[in-house]
Amino acid sequence: MTGWVAIVGLGPGRETLVTPEVRDVLAEATDVIGYIPYVDRVAPRDGLTLHPSDNRVELDRATHALSLAQQGARVAVVSSGDPGVFAMASAVFETLESAPQFADVEITVHPGITAMLAAAATAGAPLGHDFCAINLSDNLKPWDMVEHRLRMAARADFAMAFYNPRSKTRPHQFTRALEVLLEECGPDRLITFARAVSTSDEELKTLTLGDATSEMADMRTVVLVGNSATRRVGKYIYTPRSAS
Q: Which residues pair with 32 in a beta bridge?
């Protein structure tokens, strides 16, 4: 009997931010598949097999999930945040497109609270008007494309959220991203560095682009940049809903 694949988001970190729907899926699952730190967030129990794997093997992970489901397993594929935002949902469907033998597997996607939205809520409402999200990693796309999208988003006056801003292997790229933002937005634009939001390691810092440095971000940081109307009110940052 064919099982199922449920692609779930575990939220940004705090357990209270995992949705009841996702909790229900995990309670029914026989197998959990995902990147090591995300699988570590799932409590072991009788009848549940955990399958942690390293980063950058998303398609292998998806194939494994679909194969187990076809053998009758109830598989939860876990991501942090929301599974459809730079995460495993697209990897599962990409695998399905190239592997028609899995066409009979039931697949569902269960949303989660993204790091971007958790960071924005902690800061106030910096994404209160039109905004975009950009993954600054060039692992799956060329840096020229990243820079082009960054520049066009800034020219369109979107508020912006950046995932994966700076890693040990590519620290120079976030330096370049800040240079582009300064060129397009000017030094007075507000930028927020939200690190490990909703965990005990949470750090939040808002300053201007002119004062920002690349060392303020790492892979646990979501970076939010306001539009031309974003401003402070007391200790909060917000972007008004009216057009600027």
A: 50, 76
